[in-house]
Amino acid sequence: MPISPYDQETRQQAVRLYFEELVDGASSKAAALPAVKAVIGIKTSTIRNRARAEEKKVDVAVKQTDAEKNAELITLRKENARLKETNEILKLASAFSPRWSSTAN
């Protein structure tokens, strides 16, 4: 693996500036690259590669979050069905039980 001429902090700053440029109104990803290069002095290919790697990390995190949400949704739906069934059983049972009155002697 080749050694990078840029330290980790500089690369992180370049990626951060790149995404800020995109948010602040750069017309495209390609237009954001030269703006970051002008500020930090890192080659555009390095910025692009680092930004893509960061986007992949975010995509993986989002996919994991979606999978967790889907698993929780399935669990909650099963529990909801079980509770509805229990509620129906209790309704039927209460129909056959005598009613107690507080005024009965």
TrEMBL record:
Q: Which domain of life is it from?
A: Bacteria
Alphabetical list of InterPro entries matching this protein: Homeodomain-like_sf, WH-like_DNA-bd_sf
| Protein's UniProt name | Transposase
Protein source organism:
Corynebacterium rouxii
